[in-house]
Write a structure and sequence with these properties.
A hairpin with a 4-residue loop joins strand 11 and strand 12 (about 235). The chain is about 25% helix and about 25% strand. The relative contact order is 0.10. The chain folds into three domains: about 5-135, Alpha-Beta Complex (Protein-Tyrosine Phosphatase, Chain A), CATH 3.90.190; about 150-255 and about 410-555, FAD/NAD(P)-binding domain, CATH 3.50.50.60; about 255-405, 3-Layer(bba) Sandwich (FAD/NAD(P)-binding domain), CATH 3.50.50.60. The protein is globular, with a radius of gyration of 27 Å. The chain is an alpha/beta fold. Helix 3 (about 75-85) crosses helix 4 and helix 7 runs parallel beside helix 14 (about 455-470). The strands form eight sheets. Strands 6, 7, 10, 11, 12, 13 and 24 form a seven-stranded mixed β-sheet that branches. One of its GO terms (biological process) is sulfide oxidation, using sulfide:quinone oxidoreductase.
């Protein structure tokens, strides 16, 4: 007997025997549900035998037989009622456990999210992809007809999604393209570091989504619940079905604030802030302006994260502001990084270390933020140095800038498109899905080993568009991605270390050294970041004007 836990109150397992009942009781179960009809297998004990053994040990048992592959809506309702009536925890079984897991999934469809149901069953070893539409539909069987159908469907209207739509339109007029995204506002997220440094105003980093969706592209203002790649379908909340010939998946990633105990409750007050949120970046600058002494902690979680340089950018701009005001000598700057290096590409580290020294910052590697008590001005970090037991340390603070843990969105992690770590599984060169040939991905959500930055998406969008058009023409992929990403490290107001690199940390500078030497802080790189990149983003990238982003052709 090998029970698989779905929740604390329900587990499922393959066929059990009367001899297993003692073990069932010893593991804490108080009731049993049989979902396998008697006589289905020659060596199968009857339910009466199971029930008799259970009764002797004080366990309740119920018989809800389901023919394999024929779980009805009424069956799911009966299973849910049984769970409510029987004492828990409950163990449900059938031949393999799949029917029981399916019944639980449908029974809980109205009370749990699709992602939670899919995650629980996946962790238990059961694939609920075949009933995902019914789960999305509250446990009820929906009609199979598509509500809409398009040549290309794009999931996500962030930088990657809108740029991909525009790049497609510029290559193939007349395509029926739909973008699925529930958001009303589109944000220029690279600008939030500058908001936190007092350079940009937050409203300048936001525009209405409707003003940015390319003309002729259909905007489906809804959330995606699940994917059915075998049927070329995307299932929306409410169980609407959108069919596609080709699919682009780029919903970004999830900022997992909840993973740090006490963080959500204290964000935006008690000196706890983050440039990773539009509404909090102005608070960062407010704290910096008002701070004259004390300890300021800047945190960075385990990789991957979007814009890996952003946590230290906040530190540099804050340190520079304190330096200019003459209060830096009274401020203790601590940079607590869950990783083991200041920056992943070594060529840029010497310049950064000079600024760490200038601001008197202490670098604490292998320090991962796990809990915060904002009112008490205390934070706790797990210190995980190599070959050393994990140690939890407490640090007091007056100000703390937090970079949250990050993961793929829930509906992506539990989908058939994801790899074992939850990211969209693509070929890192063509950005095509490794399993489903009519699916591509770009931006923060896919698993290519590149930096997750807007600059990367700017390069990736034309590559995806080029390869999709080639596929429409019956050709093999024609464009390849070299892993390019850019991180303009704002080391002081007016100077930037412009890190540009590709796969394996290969340096990929866009400008000649006499103009911008990326390994050194420069005024030219600052002007690029402050004056040029925002209009390039709004007026070029999102409109399919591929300035310095022409796809690299595949060479044979």
């Amino acid at each position: 007997m090998d029970p698989k836990t779905l929740t604390a109150s329900v587990s499922v397992c393959p066929q059990i025997t009367p001899d297993d009942i003692q073990a069932v009781k010893d593991q804490g179960f108080r009731s049993i549900i049989c979902n396998r009809p008697d006589g289905e297998g020659a060596d199968q004990p009857s339910f009466d035998e199971i029930a008799a053994a259970a009764k002797k040990l004080g366990l309740e048992a119920r018989y809800l037989p389901i023919v394999s592959g024929k779980v009805s809506d009424e069956d799911a309702l009966d299973f849910g009622n049984a769970l409510n009536e029987l004492p828990g925890p409950t163990l449900a079984y059938c031949r393999t456990g799949t029917r029981s897991a399916t019944l639980w999934s449908l029974a809980k469809a109205k009370s749990l999210s699709v992602a939670d149901i899919m995650a629980a069953t996946k962790a238990a070893g059961y694939d609920m992809g075949g009933v995902v539409r019914r789960i999305v539909n509250g446990g009820k069987t929906p009609t199979d007809r598509a509500d809409a159908s398009y040549d290309v469907v794009i999931v996500g209207a962030g930088a990657a999604g809108i740029a991909a739509a525009s790049s497609l339109q510029s290559r193939r007029a007349g395509l029926e393209i739909a973008i699925i995204d529930p958001a009303d506002i589109h944000y220029y997220q690279p600008g939030w570091t500058m908001v936190g440094g007092g350079i940009f105003d937050a409203p300048d980093t936001a525009k209405t989504m409707g003003s940015l969706i390319p003309r002729g592209v259909h905007w489906i203002k809804a959330a995606v619940a699940a994917f059915e790649p075998q049927d070329d379908a995307v299932i929306l909340d409410g169980c609407r079905v959108v069919k596609y010939k080709r699919l682009i998946v780029c919903p970004g990633l999830k900022l997992d604030w909840q993973r740090v105990e006490g963080l959500v409750e204290t964000l935006g007050k008690n000196g706890v802030t983050s440039n990773y949120r539009y509404d909090l970046a102005p608070y960062t600058w407010e704290l910096v302006q008002n701070m004259n002494e004390g300890r300021a902690i800047f945190t960075q979680p385990p990789m991957p994260i979007k814009c890996a340089g952003a946590p230290q950018k906040a530190m540099y701009l804050s340190g520079d502001a304190w330096f200019r005001r003459g209060v830096l000598k009274d401020i203790d700057i601590q940079f607590n990084n869950a990783g083991g290096v200041l920056f992943g590409v070594k060529d840029y580290v010497p310049a950064l270390e000079k600024y760490v020294e200038k601001y008197g910052a202490t670098l604490n590697f292998f320090h991962n933020l796990v809990a915060v008590d904002g009112a008490a001005k205390k934070a706790w970090f797990d210190v995980s140095k190599p070959d050393t037991p994990v140690e939890r340390v407490e640090m007091e603070f007056d100000m703390m800038h937090v970079c949250p843990p990050q993961t793929a969105p829930d509906f992506i992690r539990v989908s058939p498109l994801a790899d074992a770590a939850g990211w969209i599984d693509v070929d890192q060169s063509t950005l095509r899905h490794k399993t489903y040939e009519n699916i591509w991905s770009l931006g923060d959500v896919m698993n290519a080993p590149n930096a997750k930055t807007a600059a990367a998406a700017r390069i990736q969008a034309p590559i995806v568009a080029e390869n999709i058009v080639a596929d429409m023409d019956g050709r093999a992929p024609v464009a390849q991605y070299n892993g390019y990403g850019s991180c303009p490290l704002t080391v002081e107001r007016g100077k930037i270390v412009l890190a540009e690199f590709g796969y394996g940390g290969t340096m990929l500078p866009s400008f000649p050294k006499f103009l911008i030497d990326g390994t050194k802080p420069s005024r030219a790189a600052w002007l690029l970041k402050e004056k040029m990149l925002p209009p390039i983003y709004w007026k070029a990238m999102l409109r399919g004007r591929e300035w310095m982003a022409k796809p690299e052709k595949i060479t044979t």
